[in-house]
Amino acid sequence: GIKRKPITVLKKLRKAKRDTAYGEKPEAVKTHLRNMVIVPEMIGSVVGVYNGKQYINVEIKPEMIGHYLAEFSITYKPIKHGRAGMGGKGAMFVPLS
């Protein structure tokens, strides 16, 4: 069955949905439970998933069912490699103007 912590999150999600006017997004429910599996009941909710530094707001959609919350909250900053500097073999062909 479902353990106690995920049930608590589900209860908070239900309450957030209940307290929201029709046609509006519910308030985000913050959680550290990255290992929680997304269930059909969560569709339409907004979950703030902790990534180790901040909470990433994730709006639950039908195609997310069966996935973990962690899959939608990346824990690292994707690297962007810069251009090569003066060191290295490729620098031999760069004109020094």
Automatic annotation (TrEMBL):
InterPro entries: Ribosomal_uS19 (IPR002222), Ribosomal_uS19_CS (IPR020934), Ribosomal_uS19_euk/arc (IPR005713), Ribosomal_uS19_SF (IPR023575). Keywords: Ribonucleoprotein, Ribosomal protein. One of its GO terms (molecular function) is structural constituent of ribosome. This is Ribosomal protein S15. GO terms for cellular component: cytosolic small ribosomal subunit. Belongs to the universal ribosomal protein uS19 family. It comes from Polarella glacialis. GO terms for biological process: ribosomal small subunit assembly; translation. HAMAP family: Ribosomal_uS19. SUPFAM superfamilies: Ribosomal protein S19. NCBIfam families: uS19_arch. The keyword Electron transport does not apply. Pfam families: Ribosomal_S19.
